[in-house]
Amino acid sequence: MTKSLDCNKAFGWAANDTSGILSPFHFSRRDHGDNDVTVKILFCGVCHSDLHMIKNDWGLSHYPLIPGHEIVGIATKVGKNVTKFKEGDRVGVGVIIGSCQSCESCNQDLENYCPEFVFTYNSSSPDGTRNHGGYSDKIVVDHRFVLSFPDGLPSDSGAPLLCAGITMYSPMKYYGMTEEKGKHLGVNGLGGLGHIAVKIAKAFGLKVTVISRSSDKEREAIDRLGADSFLVTTDSQKMKEAIGTMDFVMDTVAADHSLLPLINLLKVNGKLVTVGLPEKPLELPIFPLVLGRKMVGGSQIGGMKETQEMLDFCAKHNIVADIELIKMSDINSAMDRLAKSDVRYRFVIDVANSMNLLESAESKL
Ligand SMILES: NC(=O)c1ccc[n+]([C@@H]2O[C@H](COP(=O)([O-])OP(=O)(O)OC[C@H]3O[C@@H](n4cnc5c(N)ncnc54)[C@H](O)[C@@H]3O)[C@@H](O)[C@H]2O)c1
Ligand SMILES: [Zn+2]
Ligand SMILES: [Zn+2]
């Protein structure tokens, strides 16, 4: 009994209330079962959803809460029913760690739309143990929700693909952006999701325009990320000229904003795909949709099969995130900067190299 509890002992950084301030937290992972992979976490990306969750923006958070769903690590223990992974394999864990496995969505490899899907954190396992995310030293996950991390992908800059990458890849395929080369995509908001959208869209052969509130990131977007053009929403003349020029707009903005200018950018039959999750509902103008047979849709991450496909695609096309690597102890200032959109373009926590140091410092106190 004592041995099992010791193996389950874990250490991470948790938010304890809506201030969202993260601090060291000792907890237990659930028992490792025959279908499970235990993962020693190396790196974890910092998604804006983590920021929403620690602040309880969506009214869903239960504290203490350890965020993190862009996890890359090493399999350290593999259950006897698991054939796909062995100890020592590099693996990834994303936003979901469970689903019913039998509903219509699960049967179509769309576990992300299963009514019973289980988030990586802020959820519970069947035995009642709270699930905590990747800002921690290890995690126990059912092998069906563990991904093989391709050899060609670096663990640090590859980690954000596990949420930001699949969140951009899946709707590009579903909404038909990849069917014909040269279609014009506008990417609204050049943050963690947006900058990956530019890279993946270019690999699919799309023409990409970044839509942003200021021209601050214009040179980088074009020279480094490979965007074809840059549209500043406060430049009313340029916005007017761009009306009706885009086949698709991907809206990644996390805050309140108006959809009308984005819908106006679409051609007839154009599609606005919303993935950002502002805490309050946005107003949906119906007239321009009706008059232009335009569509507004949503999308949430992707299923496990498609997530693996996306990782392999990104490895093949050398697509990784542009990251700022931080130590675990930097997380609170990183969250403050993320709230101000002051990151180019994703924070990634060097978990293995900063968490253990903290733990040993704590034990000496
Ligand atoms: N649908 C999904 O499956 C899914 C997955 C991951 C994240 N998300 C959500 O997507 C949103 C974005 O996540 P992220 O990690 O990319 O965040 P981020 O903070 O890295 O990026 C958001 C970007 O939008 C920009 N922005 C803010 N207001 C803007 C405005 N009015 N006009 C133009 N740009 C504006 C910011 O400058 C920032 O660059 C969040 O709400 C997050 O919760 C959804
Ligand atoms: Zn995310
Ligand atoms: Zn299901």
UniProtKB/TrEMBL annotation:
GO molecular function: oxidoreductase activity, acting on the CH-OH group of donors, NAD or NADP as acceptor; zinc ion binding
Record-linked InterPro entries: ADH-like_C, ADH-like_N, ADH_Zn_CS, CAD-like, ER, GroES-like_sf, NAD(P)-bd_dom_sf
GO annotation, biological process: lignin biosynthetic process
UniProt keyword terms in alphabetical order: Metal-binding, Oxidoreductase, Zinc
Chain ranges of the Enoyl reductase (ER) domain: 20-349
Cofactor(s), by name: Zn(2+)
Zinc found in the keyword field: yes
Similarity section: Belongs to the zinc-containing alcohol dehydrogenase family.
Subunit structure: Homodimer.
Annotated protein name in UniProt: Enoyl reductase (ER) domain-containing protein
